[in-house]
Amino acid sequence: LIPISFSPTPYGEADAAFHYYESNYIRENSKLPEIVPPFAHFYANEKYTYPPVVHINIALFGKLFNIPQLYAPYIYIALLHMILGLGIYVLVKKYFGKIEAIGSIVFTSFSSRLVYSMVSGQWAYYTALATLPIAIFLIINFFKEQNAKNAVFLGLLFGLQVYTHPQIAGHSILIFIIYSIFWILVNRKLPNNLYLIPIVFLISIPGL
Fold first, then answer.
1. By CB neighbour count within 10 A (0-12 exposed, 13-18 middle, 19+ buried), where does 125 fall?
2. pTM here?
């Protein structure tokens, strides 16, 4: 995940230049940029409205650990990949077993979707993706113990995912719907505290 190159320029396509520039600006100026850089395709020179989660994370990560800006994004992504792998391992091991957990990590590590996300510079997508195993765990836990605490945790995570990258929030919500149907079919009844479901989505609204 860390580029090996003799070139002084960062490695990445498409979104990488945009994310690199924005995170570097925040690191050097300690504030959000006001406009999108001129090389950012259709959004060039427009007002900066992109969710700054990934840019702030990379800027803080590089500054706190004194990592050169050229390498900070790639080490950050490598750590996210480790967090994603750990989350998958813990989740799959808990419900299926150790062998299945190791197999899941191997298949995930060589996923063409993850490779494409890295190469194309979809760092915001990657940041949100690292929370997906946590979302699945919280969804299962929400239906296992239907209480306000679990509803709040799940709603906050959905909101964070929406704010970081809506596509991952869409994946989580789809998993929530599928698991809801599965739970109802297995238990042959509706959830006891049905009113908590809209609360989950109301809490996530600020992420929009």
1. buried
2. 0.84
pLDDT digits (tens, 9 = 90+) for 142-201: 999 989 999 999 999 999 998 888 889 999 999 999 999 999 999 999 888 888 999 998
Output the six-digit token pair for 61. Answer: 């990560």
> SS3 letters for the chain?
CCCCCCCCCCCCCCHHHHHHHHHHHHHHHCCCCCECCCCCHHHCCCECCCCCHHHHHHHHHHHHCCCCCCCHHHHHHHHHHHHHHHHHHHHHHHHCCHHHHHHHHHHHHCCHHHHHHHHCCCHHHHHHHCCHHHHHHHHHHHHHCCCHHHHHHHHHHHHHHHHHCHHHHHHHHHHHHHHHHHHHHHHCCCCCCCCHHHHHHHHHHHHC
Nearest Cα neighbor of 43 from 35, 52, 54 is 35
